[in-house]
Amino acid sequence: MVNAYSFDGIIIFVLLTICTCGYMRRVPKLREWFLSEKKGFAGIFYKASIIGTRLSLVVAISCVTMAFWLAFLR
């Protein structure tokens, strides 16, 4: 189990947020509901969706690496 306040937990949370927002960006209705704000607190999700779509290969490699690290090296 990963502690939410450890560095590992923060990395996992950020990766999951980026992956989820990147997926929501590809679904038109979800994009309209959740990613319409570009500033403020809700703007964080918009920016995460931009990162998820533009750096999708890097994000995917990071997710696989983190899953391997958690499963076998922890």
UniProtKB/TrEMBL annotation:
Location within or outside the cell: Golgi apparatus membrane
Annotated TM spans: 6-24, 44-72
Bilayer disposition of the protein: Single-pass type I membrane protein
Primary location: Golgi
Gene Ontology CC annotation, any one: Golgi membrane
Domain of life: Eukaryota
Keywords: Golgi apparatus, Membrane, Signal, Transmembrane, Transmembrane helix
InterPro entries: Kish-B (IPR042863), Ksh1 (IPR009653)
Function recorded in the entry: Involved in the early part of the secretory pathway.
Record-stated family: Belongs to the KISH family.
Record protein name field: Protein kish
Protein's organism: Rotaria sordida
